[in-house]
Inverse folding.
């Protein structure tokens, strides 16, 4: 996800700037008067302390690395990065680097791993509904906790936002006419309902519950001609999944699908026992 990676890199550069402000504020708060120590403190997080930030998505984990902070003071310096990642205000990741103790005249590299979880969205129906089919706001909030031991410390929080793509982007439904088969009892035909979509969200995997109904066939009024219920699994990028619709022959004009347009309602839920979260009408031409 190059767009989100670029965004988070920029966000962490803001964090690096916040670290400079934080350490200078520590010295001011502690009323530390040594000119050389003050110079060493600011030098610890100056241009040589930002490093080359990099962001990589490893499965469902966002890995942030490349922040290196040297301590050029005679006092130890502690540093901690913590915060969260949200999608439309639903938390999908929490991170805490833990406290890094940087002795005088030494440097420390700070790395953070952020597992991004679909469970955070499952617990927020409103956010999940938006994230399924719309672009939503992806936010990272980072707190820099810096302390000059044994003097005082300070916390500074920074937030940055970008736009994330939908989970079910460009969703389409098709009936695979070439794969239709007569049922074992000869009273119905089994036809694959094929859904394709593009997941451009930062979530690498997850599961929704699908209830699909065939509501209109050529030459017949609206009704409920066939249905199927099953889990819908998604991964990052291009997705395709098939579900079998069993259509009674008595509903068809012949012993197979007629040419024309078929209407299908797709009802999505958080789980099999959950109430419908969203209905998406689709049509398929044969």
């Amino acid at each position: 996800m190059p767009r989100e990676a670029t965004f988070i890199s920029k966000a962490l550069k803001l964090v690096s700037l916040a670290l400079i402000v934080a350490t200078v504020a520590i010295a001011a708060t502690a009323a530390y008067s040594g000119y050389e120590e003050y110079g060493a403190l600011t030098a610890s997080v100056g241009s040589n302390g930002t490093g080359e930030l990099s962001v990589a998505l490893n499965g469902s984990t966002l890995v942030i690395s490349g922040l290196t902070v040297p301590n050029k003071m005679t006092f130890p310096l502690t540093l901690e990065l913590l915060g969260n990642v949200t999608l439309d205000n639903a938390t999908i990741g929490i991170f805490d680097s833990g406290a890094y103790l940087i002795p005088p005249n030494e440097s420390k590299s700070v790395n953070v791993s952020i597992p991004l979880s679909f469970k955070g969205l499952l617990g927020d129906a409103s956010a999940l509904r938006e994230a399924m089919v719309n672009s939503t706001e992806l936010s990272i909030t980072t707190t820099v906790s810096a302390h000059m031991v044994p003097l005082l410390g300070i916390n500074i929080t920074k937030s940055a936002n970008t736009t994330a793509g939908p989970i079910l982007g460009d969703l389409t439904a098709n009936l695979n006419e070439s794969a239709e088969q007569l049922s074992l009892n000869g009273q119905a035909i089994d036809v694959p309902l094929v859904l394709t979509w593009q997941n451009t969200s930062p979530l690498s995997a997850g599961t929704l519950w699908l209830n699909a109904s065939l509501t209109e066939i050529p030459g017949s009024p609206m009704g409920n001609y066939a249905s199927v219920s099953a889990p819908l699994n998604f991964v990052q990028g291009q997705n395709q999944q098939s579900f079998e619709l069993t259509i009674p022959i008595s509903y068809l004009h012949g012993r197979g699908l007629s040419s024309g347009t078929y209407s299908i309602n797709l009802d999505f839920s958080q789980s099999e026992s959950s109430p419908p979260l969203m209905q998406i009408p689709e049509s398929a031409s044969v």
